[in-house]
Amino acid sequence: MAGKRKTRRSFGRIRKLPSGRFQARYPGPDGVLRPADRTFATTTHADRWLAKKRIEIEDGRWIDPVEGQKTVREWSARWLAAVSPQLKHRTQASYRSLINSQINPALGDRELSSLRPITVTEWVAQMRTNGLSPSRIRQAYRVLSQVMASAVENDLIPQTPCRGVRLPRMPQTEPHILTPLEASRLVRKAAKPHDLLIALLAFAGLRVGEGFALRRKDIDVPGCTVLVDENLAEANGALVFDTPKSHQNRLLRVAPTLAKRLGKHLETLPGGDDALLFTTPGGKPLRYNQWRKAYFDPAVSAAGLTDVTPHDLRASHGTWVADRYGVMTAAHRLGHSNASVTTRHYARPVPGRDDQVAQAADSWLSGHEHEPGARSGHDDDDDGAAGVPARL
User: Who's near 239: CB < 8 A, 6+ residues apart?
Assistant: First the structure.
């Protein structure tokens, strides 16, 4: 009786090990034989594994397991070097700090392919145990998510471990929305010329860094406009001039009163077109903490206000403008490319508006007076919301 003919396997190889288990090997797209990541109890199980691997290769889903052996430390360094040219200096410094202080100490020596969602969940939990703030934890997680997403895009791993991970909630803090009259009082109590800087925060909606970076050439007094195309920020203790957040340059109209006062200030400035509008007494660029302690906080106290930050002025401006002129106008003035950012972080309901809507609804219901959404023309309660009060 003839013996069984041994069939030749069309893909891969299987051999029996001294242990009695079976090892499968397969040729990658480069022709190099690679062993399976495990052994099998039977040739049938090994054959099934080889069949799946062959389909992965034919479908273009195959990932070289050697690539996944790169460490988080190695890949995060390469990723940061690649994306840095597109990042602001402050963002670069923040990413580098988070990688060095939070990611590498815990995960840096791990292979990319070894990370699982539970690994990331445990890392997040450890950061909480170490006393990191929810904000810092979420920032670190976002950086790791970008690093791992890049590893997926470059075929180092099949999927990111940063999925299904619960992050600590951010505490809900509402901005202190001032009335225009309160903001005007704050401006009047500030030392010159920093009263003009505070006025630009409140009545033009500038970010503090944008105000710090204003130059003579950015002010068009006759046209009553301010060009916002630069931002001054601190990165690892160093001052860096960069584009505004989200790279959104904008030309803002300001109140004639404010434009005129800016013009008078320009006459006192030394230097040429690149001269900064606001500096230290020694002519150096301003630093946020020093400026706030020396000029802003004393003005807040003198105005009889409490718990007011420079950022509150920007949020107040967004609220006034959105309330009277719509969210899209507020988004433009604040330099937001997406109006949802304006409504989520800046525009807030103005006290008393709900009562006014109820009163107007009475006339809508009876079919008299104004159509829904029409303005009555009585805006005395707005206190000059979108402009600069006559007296700063």
Answer: 232, 233, 285, 287
